[in-house]
Amino acid sequence: MNLALAQDTTKTNTVTEGKIRNIDGVAAVVNTGYVTRKEIDDRIAALKKQGAKVPEDGTARKVVLDHLILEKIQLQNAEQEGIKVTNKELDKIIEDIASKNKLSISEFKAKVIASGTTFERYKEMLREDIIVSRYREKKIKGKIKISDAEIDNFIVERTRALSTGAPSRSAPAAKGELEEIDIAQIFIPVDTSAGAGAQAEAKKKADSLLRDARGDVDFMQLGAMAAKENPKIKFQELGYRTPDRLPQLFYEAIRNTGSGQVANAVVKSPAGYHVLKALDRRAAGVAPLQQASTPDAAPSTPQNIPITQTLSRHILLRNRAGLSDQDAERRLQGYRDQVRAKTADFGELAKKYSADGSAPIGGELGWMGPGDLVPEYEQAMNRLQIGEVSNPVKSEFGWHLIQVLQRREGQLTIEKQRQFARAAIRERKLEQAYQAWMRELRDTATVKILNADDAASSNVR
User: Where are the domains of the chain?
Assistant: First the structure.
């Protein structure tokens, strides 16, 4: 097909040109493929349906087109390298997605169709997403190297920031001067096909992380702890960027946020929920200030960090067929009332009713520090006084009734700090490598923009 004929949609002198209009017009030629205006329309419609604010001045079409071009380049390269997703693999992945949303395959299909697309189109988009993800992983992850010196420096920097209480590292930009902002994020992904329940759970987790981030806690370590509990959660420092190089949603959220402060609210994007912190703000192109050495400065070598450890026990009712959330909550409320009225012993109830491996020892979980337990459990536990029993708490494992037995001061060991540091550095380097790689892909591809400004002329695909 001669795609150049799509440049002038008013011409009708060839059959080929008519075919191009029937697929809604070509917006851009990408190597040997193309992106259609209908694809842009569909992507913008999906963004709006997911609650994203889409500018009506045409800028959204250009941004979406850029994303589609990059996706197309990656798909083409992945195909050349033989990266594929078989039908059997795809069916298994869809079964897993449906299962996680507590839906049968037929129910899941109905939900996809109700969202405004065909199930076949959904499968094809999912296949493309998986292929692109595998291609990126192959090209980037193996190149990330982290030295012991980098880990040591990261720990020292974070320890100093916690000790001095002065997160700002740079002189702010003067009024009217272009600035750069160093943003960190903790990202809780949600599949676009996820149901309302999954969306609500992700939002709840994001809100709890935002509350924790407002406290006296290192943001990147908070992200590392969340990622340890749920590997799907990602955290990263984006590095210094001018506002035009930040996602618009991010910039709007931290526009009036000072250095070292978290955004006022969780940010919702089509991909999930983002907890943001403005690590630093500075004049564009200016190197960060060096902190002056003072007698009270944090030590220059890694040391154990004091933390509070808690000894607790719980009664767990796991998610299972035939036990609704209402039933589980009601049963635990009954156990709670018995313990509070001193007509039953918490440990004996745990031995009898808890569906956890800790049941034989009365539900005791041992001494736990920050990040050792799932966030919902840890947050509820931290609000309790010694001896106090919680209200029922839901986590990914089921429903918990929690009692705090003791607390003590412990230490976050250097070994554990190094684990957090390695994960944080890796995420930062992955983002930097990914951005550089994407620029390289775009620069080496043959791309010709034809007409991205107009909406598709037809609904026929």
Answer: 3-140+445-449, 170-283, 305-412
